[in-house]
């Protein structure tokens, strides 16, 4: 059997702050930088939910609880590497270089340039159709292999998305073509209200990798150092021609599926409480404090700086030109059908002639 089945959960830092693995070779400044990304992600996610509640953004998915996996999967990517993800990857996209204002613009339904992911970031747009981004990622990775470039691709999806044919087909293609591709599954236990055990009878999603000939890893997704360490190994292997890998990050969403969801209808409170005690941010903060790398004052300052950064993103969003609401009718067909033209006219009539909404500063 060339690839032993993974049966070990990689962990470096337990929820109670115990060090149980080798700390990766990483500077003190980088440790603080990784922590800052997690704090920024949590603040940004909370602010986005508040903006949605005020009617200033559309439906969106909070990332609370998944900050360690999000930062760890993106932190080691080079500018030329590619990242494809779902609606749950906003923090990973930020780490890869997408401005906060661009993400906010997307969630306000803006389509103009300032709300689109810049090409230089090598991020594909946020994908809502589950697992399709994994096929796109694999296609890009196969292209990179064909052109013998030193780039890698990280494709991210949730546990629910792994039940799609697309995910499994992508694993097969990446394996056969030995594409420089890293599959990352953010297994947060739920696909809206469908629990993980109803997605697959396998104990771990990573157990699927060896069946496709891929080295696979199960990682404590709330342990930033563990995710970082595994990502370093799989990225280096892919970049040096060693082929694709599958990484399953065991994590949990501490918020609703989206702003249109009420998890109290299905999520057992004991489960939530258990995972609240594994929150990746206090765990990493404690680690930094134990190493005398972060005082309470420095932590407060870091948080204030992150709030200011998110606020700057909101201000940049408010300075963007508003999207004319009728533009939703303009982008479906090159030549609109008579039905669409009628709908557009009715819509504009209903809107009372209001074409552009303006947003006051918040
Ligand atoms: C192909 C497809 N089927 C169904 C949906 C509706 N849908 C949106 S999110 C979601 C759950 C996805 O769960 P998971 O992959 O675990 O990601 P998570 O939201 O937990 O991050 C579903 C079924 C969709 N967007 N695309
Ligand atoms: Mg999920």
Explain what this protein looks like in three dimensions:
The chain has two domains: 9-318, 3-Layer(aba) Sandwich (Rossmann fold), CATH 3.40.50.970; 324-354, no CATH class. Helices cover 41% and strands 9% of the residues. The protein is built from eleven helices and eight strands. It has helices at 28-53, 67-74, 90-96, 100-107, 132-146, 165-177, 224-239, 269-276, 280-290, 296-318, 338-350, and strands at residues 9-10, 82-84, 153-158, 181-187, 190-191, 194-195, 216-220, 245-250. A six-stranded parallel β-sheet has the order 1-7-8-4-3-2, sandwiched between helices. The chain has a two-stranded antiparallel sheet with strand order 5-6. Strand 3, helix 6 (165-177) and strand 4 form a beta-alpha-beta unit. It is globular. Magnesium ion (MG) binds at residues 158-160, 188, 190-191.
């Amino acid at each position: 059997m060339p690839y032993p089945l993974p049966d070990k959960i990689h962990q470096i830092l337990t929820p109670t702050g115990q060090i149980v693995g080798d700390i990766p070779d990483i500077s003190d400044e980088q440790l603080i930088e990784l922590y800052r990304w997690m704090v920024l992600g949590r603040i940004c996610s909370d602010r986005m939910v508040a903006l949605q509640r005020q009617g200033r953004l559309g439906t969106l998915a909070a990332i609370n609880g998944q900050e360690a996996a999000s930062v760890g999967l993106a932190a080691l990517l080079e500018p030329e590497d590619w990242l494809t993800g779902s609606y749950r990857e906003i923090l990973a996209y930020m780490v890869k270089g997408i401005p906060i204002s661009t993400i906010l613009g997307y969630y306000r339904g803006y389509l103009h340039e300032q709300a689109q992911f810049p090409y230089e970031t090598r991020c594909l747009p946020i994908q809502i159709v589950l697992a399709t981004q994994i096929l796109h990622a694999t296609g890009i990775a196969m292209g990179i292999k064909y052109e013998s470039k030193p780039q890698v691709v990280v494709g991210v999806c949730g546990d629910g998305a792994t039940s799609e044919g697309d995910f499994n087909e992508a694993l097969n293609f990446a394996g056969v073509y030995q594409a420089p591709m890293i599959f990352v599954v953010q297994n947060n236990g739920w696909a809206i209200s469908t629990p993980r055990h109803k997605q697959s009878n396998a104990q771990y999603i990573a157990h699927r990798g060896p069946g496709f000939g891929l080295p696979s890893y199960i990682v404590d997704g709330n342990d930033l150092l563990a995710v970082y360490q595994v990502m370093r190994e799989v990225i280096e292997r892919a970049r040096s021609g060693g082929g694709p890998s599958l990484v399953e990050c065991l994590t949990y969403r501490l918020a609703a599926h989206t702003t249109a969801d009420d998890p109290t209808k299905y999520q057992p409170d004991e489960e939530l409480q258990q995972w609240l005690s594994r929150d990746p941010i206090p765990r990493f903060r404690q680690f930094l404090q134990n190493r005398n790398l972060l005082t309470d004052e420095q932590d407060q300052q870091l948080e204030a700086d992150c709030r200011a950064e998110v606020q700057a993103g909101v201000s940049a969003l408010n300075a963007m030109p508003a999207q004319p609401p009728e533009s939703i009718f303009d982008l479906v067909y090159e030549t609109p059908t008579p039905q669409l033209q009628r709908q557009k006219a009715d819509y504009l009539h209903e809107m009372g002639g209001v074409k552009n909404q303006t947003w006051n500063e918040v």
